[in-house]
Amino acid sequence: MKTWVRTYGANPLHLLGLLATFLVFGYAALQIFQDPVWYRYLFWFAGAALVHDLVLAPLYGLLDRSVRPLLHRSSRTATGNPGDINYLRVPAFLSGLLLLTFFSSISRGGGRAFEAASGMTEDVFLGRWLLISGVFFLLSAVAYAVRGRRSTAEPTPVNGP
Amino acid sequence: MSTRVGPEPARHGFPQPVFEALENAPRPPLPRFRSPVRGTWLTSVLGFVLLIGLPVMLLTGFLSYAAYDPQFAGNAFPRDPGLLRLPYFDWPTNPVWLYRVSQGLHVVLGLALVPIVLAKLWSVLPKLFVWPPARSVAQLLERASLLLLVGGILFELLTGVMNIQYHYAWKFDFYTAHYYGAWVFLAAFALHVALKLPTMRASLRARSLRDELKTDREHTVPEPPDEHGLVSPDPAEPTISRRGVLALVGGGSLAVTALTIGQTAGNSLRPTALLSVRGLSYGDGPNDFQVNRTARTAQVTDAMVTDAWRLTLIGPAGTQELSRADLLAMDQRTETLPIACVEGWSSVQTWTGVRLRDLAAMAGLPEPDRALVLSLESRGAFNRTMLTGGQVTASRSLLALQVNGVDLSMNHGFPARVIVPALPGVRNTKWVRQLELMA
C-alpha cells in the first residue's frame, strides 16, 4: 500500500474515481462521434475552458489592474482610499456580467432564429443594456460624491460607511 | 495518512527523475497572483454555494429530459443515450405547474450561478499556473479531470445561456450537447466533491463567517498560507474585503435573477425581465402571449386551415374525420393552464376545447396506452409527439380550439392545438391534423 501511494501519488481510490470520470467522458464522446459534426462539440467544450482561462480571466484581471494607477494619479480621489476603486469596479462588474450573460441578445445573435420562433426582434436589448449600465455607474458616482463630501466635512472617518 | 484520498503533497511519484527534473526546472514566465483575498476559505464559501446550486441544476435538467417522455422514440433528443440514460417513467400531469417550476428554476438558477461559477474559477486561478504542474501521476490525472470539470460547467452554461437567446452559433444539436455535457460535468463534479469536501469543511470551520462579514477592507488580512497554494506569497494591499467580494458576486447573481425572473413568473411581472428575450410584450389582446414558432416558420398557411380542415381521429372505432364545427359541437371545457418552455419562460392562459379523453372515447379507446399527435407542419423536430396514456386521460388535457374566449390565432396553432398540464411547451402540438390512439 505504501509503495503504491509513493509510486502513484495517492490512494488507489483516487485512481478509481478518476478512471470512472474518464470512462463517462469517453462514453459520452463515443455517443457524440455518431454525429457527423462531432468535432464542433469538442471544439466548443475545449474552447469554453481555454477562452475563459487564457483570455477572459486574464483580461478582466488586466482591466482591474490597469485602472488602479489612474485612480491613484487623480488628485480628486476624495479620500485617497485604495477602496475607492470599488466605485468603478462594482458598476463595471455588474455591467460586464450582464453583457456576458445576455451577450447573445445584446449583439442580436439570435437574429433570424429568434424572429422565426417568436415573430419579434432583439433590437431593444443593446439600448436597454447601455441604459441599465448607465444607471449602475450613475448610482456609483452619486455614492462616491456623497461619501467624498462627507469625508471632507469630517476629516477623520474611523470606520467606512 | 493512509486515509488520505487526495495526492500526497511535496513528494515525487513514479517516474521520480521526471517529476524531480520538472520541480527543479526553471519556472517559466507564468503569471503571478497578488490578490490578498484569495484563499481556501473564500474558495470554499463559493464552492459551498455551488455544492447546493449545481445538484439542483443537474436534477432539474435531467427532469426536463424526462418531461419529453423519451421512452417513445422521436419524442426527446438525444433519441437513445445508451448507458447514459436514467430510468424511464411516464411524465405526470399533476401538479399542473410542475414543468413551469422545475424548468423555470433550471434556467433562472443557471443564470444566477454564472457569477458564482466565474468567481469560483477566479478564486482558484493561481492553481492553473502552479509550478511544477505536477509531482506525481495522481496529480497529473487530477489536473486532466479538472479540464472536464471546468470545460463541463462552462460548456453547459454557455450552451444553455445561448440557447435561451436563440443564438445557435455552435451549429450542433443543443439538446444532444447539453445532455452529454451534463453527464461529463456530473462525473467530474462528483469526483471533485469527493476529493475536496474534506478541504472545504476544514477551511469553512477555520474561519467564522460572521467575523468575515464584520471585517471591512482596512482590517482585511490574507489568509495564512497553506498547502493548497491559493494564498498569494506576495499579497498586495487589499482594495476590497472578503465580505465585499461576496457582496459583489451575490449582487451580480441578484441582478441577473431580477432581470430574468419575470419571463418565468409572467404574466404581469413579464416586463421586469428587461434583458430577457421572453420579457418582450406582444400586446394585451387575447392571443398576445409568447409564440414559440410562428405559422410562417412552420409553413402552415391560411389555405391549409380553411373550413376544409379536418382532424383525423384514429382508433379501434375506425378512422373519423372531424371538422372544426364537429369539435365545437362536442362538450367544451375551459381550463386555465400554464404553457412552459424548455427555455424557462412560461405563460398562463385560459384555454377552451374538447377533452382529449372524450376524443379517446370517441375513437373507441377510452384507456389508451399512448397517442400520437401529428401537426400540419411538415418539417421541424416537434411536428409530432407521442403522449402517454395518462396525459391523454388527464381530466384537464385539451385539444384547445380557443384561448381567452376567442379562436386561437394562427401563431398559436389554429384550428386546434394540444394543451396538456405540466407538459413542455413544444410537446403541446400546434396546428393538429391527426390524433391516433394506441393500445
Quick tags:
heterodimer; A: 161 residues; mainly alpha; B: 439 residues; five-stranded mixed beta sheet
Walkthrough of the structure:
Chain A is built from 7 helices and no strands. Chain A has 161 residues and is an all-alpha fold. The radius of gyration of chain A is 25 Å and the shape is flat. Chain B has a 5-stranded mixed β-sheet with strand order 2-1-10-5-6. In chain B, strands 3, 4, 7, 8 and 9 form a 5-stranded antiparallel β-sheet that branches. In chain B, helix 2 (40-67) runs antiparallel to helix 3, helix 2 (40-67) packs antiparallel against helix 6 and helix 3 runs antiparallel to helix 8 (242-258). The radius of gyration of chain B is 27 Å and the shape is elongated. Chain B has helices spanning 16-24, 40-67, 98-123, 125-128, 137-163, 174-206, 209-214, 242-258, 262-265, 295-298, 324-329, 356-362, 389-393; strands spanning 311-315, 318-322, 333-340, 346-355, 370-375, 384-388, 398-403, 406-407, 417-419, 432-438.
Number of strands of chain B: 10
- Fraction in beta strands of chain B: 5-15%
Largest sheet of chain B: 5 strands, mixed
By helix and strand content of chain A, what is the structural category?
Answer: mainly alpha
Q: Helix coverage percent of residues of chain B? A: 40-55%
Outline the biggest β-sheet of chain A. none
Oligomer: heterodimer
Overall 3D shape of chain B: elongated
Instruction: Note the run of SSEs of chain A as H and E.
Output: HHHHHHH
Mean pLDDT of chain A comes to 90
- Biggest interface, residues from each chain: A-B, 70 and 93 residues
Provide the spatial order of strands within the biggest beta sheet of chain B: 2-1-10-5-6
Please state the overall shape of chain A, judged from the principal axes of the Cα atoms. flat
How would you summarize this macromolecular structure in one to three sentences?
Chain A is built from seven helices and no strands. With 161 residues, chain A is mostly helical. In chain B, β7 and β8 form a beta hairpin.
